[in-house]
Amino acid sequence: MAVAVGKQRQARGLGNERLREALVGYGFIALPMAFFILFFLVPIGYAFYISRYNWQIFKGPYVGWGNYRQLYHDTVFWHHAVRNTLVYTAFVVPLQITLGLALAVVVNQAIRFRTFFRAAFYFPSLAASAAIAAIATYILASDGLFNTVLGHLGYHHNTAWFGEQSTALPSIIGLNAWTTSGTMMLFYLAALQAIPTDVYEAAAIDGAGAWRTFWKVTFPLLKPAHFFVLVVSIIGAMQMFDQAFLIGGASGGPNYSTMTVVLYLYNQSIKNISFGYGAAIGVVLFVFIFTVTVIQRLLFGKPEVA
Amino acid sequence: MSTEQLPDVPPVAALDELAVERAAATGAPAATGIPGRERGERIRTAIAYIVMFSVAALFFIPFLWSVSTSFRTIQDTVGGFSLLPKHWTLSGYHDALHTFNFGRYTLNSLIIALAITISNLFLASLGGYAFARLKFPGREVLFLLVLGTLMIPDQLRLVPIYLMLVNWIPGWVGHLGWHDASFINRNGVILIQLVSAASLFLMRQYFLTIPRDLEEAAKLDGAGYFKTYRKVMLPLAGPALAAVGILQFQGAWNGLFWPAILLQDKNQYTIPIGIANFRFAYQTLWPPLMAASVLAILPILLIFIVFQRYFVAGVAASGVKG
């Protein structure tokens, strides 16, 4: 009898303890959760709500799908913003992935100064995009370092690479392939180091050369990393804003050649104060990015992160 | 709990390496030791060196060129090409800091970056501890919700957050006695970045690797949860705190998107916004512009050199910036 009472008391004590632990737990996560709900979850619904109104400085009349219909017929959006974003993505993604993989493989070799090289390759990914864009503008100016070097090699140019309609976007592609390859390198490096060395030993015993080993052994084993890097890279590319904003300005000049979807979204909502329209662009972009993620998951299966 | 249910959960290998206090992602030497291969191996290594040094040079030339230009006179930037400044001068820095107000912008960048970093360290470690150690109903679901926020792009949030900062938040803080507050400024930039899912995730994963014995001991000594968090867990979480702190500081210091939207008063500009504006206002005044760029890059470079391995872990855990 006494034992039973003791057990009961112990159980109640445990119950209290558990309740206390739960309450403390809720207390500890209260602020972060409130933050995530207010600034991440609420905005999803609110964005859709705003997109159904003609919303300038103040909330205007309800327009239903009006903003979306307007977007559907918006030639600047399709012919410039979407087109540029797709072109940019189509070129920058393979470039930065190839470059990142190549750097990772090289840096993964057992050589001296490995830490230094890794740091050197990674650093452009870390520096402020504004500073990089400023430096790039300087180097790619009509009388800049790039044209000077080209001149010494016999190719005389006085193109301001960011200033002309035909070269602005390709220059941004080159710039960003350079700055993001370091991050891609890091992702690949983590995956490369997860590959057990006996796989290479087996390949070496079979007499496979370095090139063959890479394509037959390393590359297929990196499949999960390929998936991860591809998703991250495509999503990043579709959200490109910094360099377009810094180099082409809010209007994506010259003549819309650097206008991207996100820059257009910024332009419409912050510069034009068409919040309803801006919100509609945001929703469309979100759906698009989400679809890409889902399609990639279906194609490549579940990502197995390192 | 399984974190694999969500796509794009960042790789945590580097994080585990942090946990054992090893340099993250150390290179695994390629398999060698097979007779007759040394020569080929040596040639391959030589080629790798040459490639790496040239690529490293290519990666550094733009930075070195900007440093070189930041010490030039304006006349020295036009015409005749020279690797080093013909007349070394600090006037580029002087002009940037005083005439073009980058002294003020540096201070603003510092305030924003420090506020965001400190807040992330506190909120993410507190929440991370709760998610890693405390049991409460709904814990798994709430954690998935936190990770889910990683999938919501900033662009979708631009308009709603802007309108919330204009219409909702000032009213709410007004009820708390802070009247006529505005958030289309520095306060807004800080407010919407108080904590990030990546920070919280990083902290939680790290706390999961700490053995429970120490907490048990603290519990037996009668320490409460907050005391356990502060006296036992935080001191053990140094590497994760460093990774979160560095990642957040770097992100906030370099930040362009939210400052471009929210900073409208010139006196609150950060360095990146200052550079963006300068570019359009004074096109070819290269020395002060390069000086400003060096100012933007240098602190991050220094932090990077000192804390390289934390950067690696942090980035591996957070995905890539646009």
Percentage of residues in DSSP E strands of chain A: under 5%
SSE pattern of chain B, N- to C-terminal: HHHHHHHHHHHHHHH
Instruction: Tell me the structural class of chain B.
Output: mainly alpha
- Contiguous low-pLDDT stretches of chain B (5 residues minimum) are 1-33
Amount of beta strand of chain B = under 5%
Cα-to-Cα separation, first versus last residue of chain B? 30 Å
Residue share in helix of chain B: 55-70%
Give Rg of chain B in angstroms. 24 Å
Shape of chain A: globular
Low-confidence stretches of chain A: none
Care to describe what's here?
With 306 residues, chain A is mostly helical. Chain A contains 13 helices and two strands; from the N terminus they run H-E-E-H-H-H-H-H-H-H-H-H-H-H-H. In chain A, strands 1-2 form a two-stranded antiparallel ribbon. In chain A, helix 2 (66-72) packs across helix 13 (275-300) and helix 5 (129-139) packs across helix 11 (242-248). The termini of chain A are far apart. With 322 residues, chain B is mostly helical. The longest helix of chain B has 33 residues, at 38-70. Chain B contains 15 helices and no strands. The chains are: A mainly alpha (306), B mainly alpha (322). Chains A and B meet through helix 1, helix 3, helix 4, helix 5 and helix 7 of A and helix 2, helix 4, helix 5, helix 6 and helix 10 of B.
What keywords describe this structure?
heterodimer, A: 306 residues, two-stranded antiparallel ribbon, 2 strands, 76% helix, 2% strand, globular, B: 322 residues, 15 helices, 0% strand
